[in-house]
Amino acid sequence: xxxxxxxxxxxxxxxxxxxxxxxxxxxxxxxxxxxxxxxxxxxxxxxxxxxxxxxxxxxxxxxxxxxxxxxxxxxxxxxxxxxxxxxxxxxxxxx
Amino acid sequence: xxxxxxxxxxxxxxxxxxxxxxxxxxxxxxxxxxxxxxxxxxxxxxxxxxxxxxxxxxxxxxxxxxxxxxxxxxxxxxxxxxxxxxxxxxxxxxxxxxxxxxxxxxxxxxxxxxxxxxxxxxxxxxxxxxxxxxxxxxxxxxxxxxxxxxxxxxxxxxxxxxxxxxxxxxxxxxxxxxxxxxxxxxxxxxxxxxxxxxxxxxxxxxxxxxxxxxxxxxxxxxxxxxxxxxxxxxxxxxxxxxxxxxxxxxxxxxxxxxxxxxxxxxxxxxxxxxxxxxxxxxxxxxxxxxxxxxxxxxxxxxxxxxxxxxxxxxxxxxxxxxxxxxxxxxxxxxxxxxxxxxxxxxxxxxxxxxxxxxxxxxxxxxxxxxxxxxxxxxxxxxxxxxxxxxxxxxxxxxxxxxxxxxxxxxxxxxxxxxxxxxxxxxxxxxxxxxxxxxxxxxxxxxxxxxxxxxxxxxxxxxxxxxxxxxxxxxxxxxxxxxxxxxxxxxxxxxxxxxxxxxxxxxxxxxxxxxxxxxxxxxxxxxxxxxxxxxxxxxxxxxxxxxxxxxxxxxxxxxxxxxxxxxxxxxxxxxxxxxxxxxxxxxxxxxxxxxxxxxxxxxxxxxxxxxxxxxxxxxxxxxxxxxxxxxxxxxxxxxxxxxxxxxxxxxxxxxxxxxxxxxxxxxxxxxxxxxxxxxxxxxxxxxxxxxxxxxxxxxxxxxxxxxxxxxxxxxxxxxxxxxxxxxxxxxxxxxxxxxxxxxxxxxxxxxxxxxxxxxxxxxxxxxxxxxxxxxxxxxxxxxxxxxxxxxxxxxxxxxxxxxxxxxxxxxxxxxxxxxxxxxxxxxxxxxxxxxxxxx
Lengths: 95, 838
Hints:
The structure holds 2 protein chains of 2 kinds.
Chain A: H1 7-32, H2 52-94
Chain B: E1 10-18, H1 19-32, E2 36-37, H2 52-74, H3 91-158, E3 175-182, H4 186-196, E4 202-207, E5 212-213, E6 220-221, E7 223-230, H5 233-245, E8 249-251, H6 257-314, E9 317-318, E10 324-332, H7 336-350, E11 357-362, H8 377-387, H9 398-413, H10 416-431, H11 433-439, H12 444-451, H13 453-470, H14 492-497, H15 531-564, H16 568-599, H17 611-620, H18 635-666, E12 676-677, H19 716-740, H20 743-767, H21 773-813, H22 830-837
Antiparallel strand pairs in B: 1-10, 1-11, 2-10, 3-7, 3-8, 4-7, 5-6, 9-10, 11-12
Helix pairs in contact in B: 1-6, 1-7, 2-3, 2-6, 3-6, 4-5, 8-9, 9-13, 9-20, 9-21, 10-13, 15-16, 15-20, 16-18, 16-19, 18-19, 20-21
Protein name (chain B): V-type proton ATPase subunit a
Subcellular location (chain B): Membrane
Organism (chain B): Branchiostoma floridae (Florida lancelet)
């Protein structure tokens, strides 16, 4: 396969992906349990706060969003890891 | 492993080495790396020293090796570093090494010259080949033009000069030259020809497609083939001169096509032969270099070691009998056994029968400071030494710095998420230590980070701890244990009506008394509007408490110094007043901080007097009227007592010590020891122990009691001034340093705010979109958040907190007890030498 990213970019991508997976995963869990500290971070208008159920739904949606992001980063992480392997293999071949 | 608390006890030793054994002994000592030699011939020129010839030979060897290394690198052959550490070879082997290097150098030079000559030859042949090929078409054109122009020529130029019989189309013989010129020079060349020959020459040119290799520089140059037709000898010489000027190479080109064809064939064969020869030369050169590349590291190490040994031997003195060398060196007392063993090994290696002798000497010079560190403590020792190397046998702040430095850093950094990233980074560097050290990246920034890997690991770990205390994870709090505050009993209409609700901790339903959040800050503060007001008070008080604690500890360490150096006067007249002064004022402040935290709860907090005002009033002797404004009963009397005690300490600091010194001077105490040399007749190479105090070195002259040098130098005025400066510095320093510790609060506030800003301005964008769009935007926003976190919060804030924690240590902590006027122990060690070169 081809080497698309250089060695530094692939390592950066890998680290950010790991961080993203863990952080977004946890953030999703916190959205799901409706942590009040994340109240300002949900996309809810003042009108939405009238109904309890609506706010709950928004929390849940945010949780799913975070998990989707975590999922995307799983793929990005795998891709970066793959690129890292390709790069290190190329180093052996060229010399 | 020696103790890190004080520097190692050092002794000045004299070595008697037999001339034959000297080289081997120094080699062994270099491998050991525990002695620092003194230069016994400081006023001797470098060119007049004993072993200057050997050093010169070593320099020559190194030069040859460098030449070889350059050639190897040019050929692109990898130099393999086996990590082998050969011993310094004996002097007789040096001749062998020199011969080998000479042979290699000559061979390389010869091969290089040959190759150059061959390449030049090759270039000429190639150019000739191109000329022969291209000029075919020129000649045909020239014939045609010649036929065309002939009548015109005949009419113009020969009408007058020649007779009638010359007319009538006798074909004029055109001369020509053919050659090759650089493509860039061609236009100018043409113009010059035109001008100089007044248009009577005819130039044809065409380009050579493939670039040719210049034999000297190895560059590829583009050249053109040209051919110039002219008539007459004058023009010929003119053309030749111009060609010379433009550095065009001319080649003899035969006129008839048949000859040209023959020549072309000849040239082709010659080119093929030359190519074979060139390839073989290249192969030979490559082989020579490959075989050299295998050994070049080892040779370098050997050459450098020999040179180092001869440099060191140059520092020695030759004794009267011309049979042995005398050396003076500093060495740690604890390692004398190992040095003896090394000397014995050296003597055995050299085959000499006379053993080497090591004597201890006493001296009044300050010995160098030597701390025995391992890879963990060396980083902390380095940051202490950056400020100043500890004076001999002074208390070393490094072991305390191992804990206090990361702790103060963490107080200023205070975010568990960032701390986790930092700790993981440090952990990775520590885990991959060996690999990363072997990779040996030459980048300076990386080297700094890698050198401080243990510091980074500790800083990260402590930051996780303080992150839990401040309850800060990327600026959000975690509710682990359940908040002690509750909104359960606030009525719904209140919530609807008001934008902001004040929670009164006095109401039991809101705040459960006697059950605060078990560890760290209650997470509800993250949502509170008055979070910063509350935290300010808390963090400021905490900073001052930490500051006073660290400064008191520093003063106590100074007592340790006074006791070690047997300076009872200072212990009483400096330590006690200093400690009392600090504790009476700022220790008292810390005490009432704690008291106020404990004694006042939410119900009576509105009545609590301000601590700052209390402290100010304490000094103005202003006391409030109503009983409520007192913290505790008996406060008035106690405070007056403390102030008077603190004030009384000041004249003690100013006058007691000079008074004692003056008294000591009057009673005429003798000076301390002088330089004694003890050379016992013992022929064994055991250290001759001095018969003084069971072989213990007398402690160096105490720094407090002066008047030890000469009697006339004692000056009471100078002493008083010095003491006054010291006292003022201390007293004012107490106040300013205590305030300086408030930077712990300031930086932690800055960090928390930056972290919050980064979340609310970057990640919040992603989370603020409704529906599934949010996921897409967050995917794009998250890397930006990550990069900015690392760049701003970890690198910038990390460096900032590092710097301020360092400053707190260097100035506020160490000024209480640390002199830092020593010089570092730099032993003669091959390991250090090799590291320097790499």
